[in-house]
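ARCHIVE CARD
Drawer: 12
Card no.: 0347
Subject: one protein chain, sequence and derived structure
Cross-reference: see card 0346
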Amino acid sequence: MPFEIERKFLLSAFEPPQTAVRQHIEQGYIAIRDDGTEVRLRRIGGSRVLGVKRSASSAEGSPVRIEVERELGEQEFTELWPATEGARLVKDRYTFEASGVTVYADVYQGELAGLRTVEVEFGSEAQAAAFSAPEWFGAEVTGVKAYKNQTLATRGMPGS
């Protein structure tokens, strides 16, 4: 089973390093359940992906989720995209190495402009627990519902 183990933090300021790889992401949600299960569509550059994520643990705020993704053709994506109306977000993702880990920094656009987050994925829960965030990371928001992409896509900027 494909697991995703990640921690998420806010960024107050961000200047991507020259080594960063930038990807433009359009993301929309077809279904979101109360237990956090989500079905989403993503266009990442030339790729189109249908993904399903759900919690792998009953513990609130757990960094472990089950994630399954499948490539879609352009026609399939185009036919499904209208189902995401009212539950979309756009962001630029910068991927690079820092502090001994791969970092995914997201700079949101549109109604979420000004929001910046950073995620780090791990191979195990022990690695996630042992990780010490560098000083340039802001407050940790792992498991905070207001900062989950599905909530950002449906409710907008936290506190607004």
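Annotation on reverse: The beta strands are 3-10, 21-32, 38-44, 47-55, 64-71, 88-98, 101-108, 116-122. The longest strand covers residues 21-32.
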